[in-house]
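Q: What structure does this chain adopt?
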Amino acid sequence: MKINITATTDIGNNRENNEDAFAFCPDLSDSDWHMTRTGGYLPLGPLGALIIVADGMGGTNAGEVASAVAIESISKTITSESAKEAIDDDGKTRQLLTTAVQNADKAINQHMVDHPDTAGMGTTIVICWIMQQKAYTAWCGDSRCYLYNDKGLQPLSKDHSYVQELVDRGELTEEETFTHPDNNVITRGLGDFDTMVTPDITTTPVKAGDMFLLCSDGLCGYCTNDMIAKVMADSEADVDQCAEQLLQTALEVPGDDNICITVVSLLDDDDERATPPSRFRAFLKKVFGKQ
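A:
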């Protein structure tokens, strides 16, 4: 299969700074994290691709620092070497994802010790590790991962939040969560000295034609799943168009929070849709030594 990834983030309509952050590595064999989009479809390597979205918390207490520290820590834990040791073993893969999240939690806590002015910061995290046959989703908090394909939009994560607990108990409907006064209260996140955070992890089969969406609650906290599904249905595997339209939809709701969106598309190797243009191939060859 081949993979195409794009990501975007926006401060939103009513914030003074952006505490959301993202990072992705389209090929863990290379451990290259310095992209905002692949610019077209690239081969899905033997170690797969890793995508991360973090929604920092703390406002003036450096939520944007927490999200950045978390992503940097995770990218240092899940490397080509560690991925190679875990890729063919479900237990090792889950342990590596857990270790990555816990290392990020420790890094945030240590940063607060070293920089007391950032005390109180924290972040949500959602990670999707896409392999040839399946994808692992690991998360803490209410940033989400979705799968979209011919079966429609399927949430792969379940919010760690107060309103989700109310929904689970039958005390609140999904629609009512959008207007509940405590819909920003999460029950699990990185940056809590009192708890060793443990992510929830799910697996899902992967096939050509699948699209994945990772987002902060700046999107899913304002746009319903039906709204998100409609945009993804209209994108026809065009990740750039999909990400831009999702962003505009969130802004027009209007969304007052920071917004972070990463869209992934998978196609068969012989599918010619949106093949990278020759100039992008030349760029890859020049910078990364790839054809």
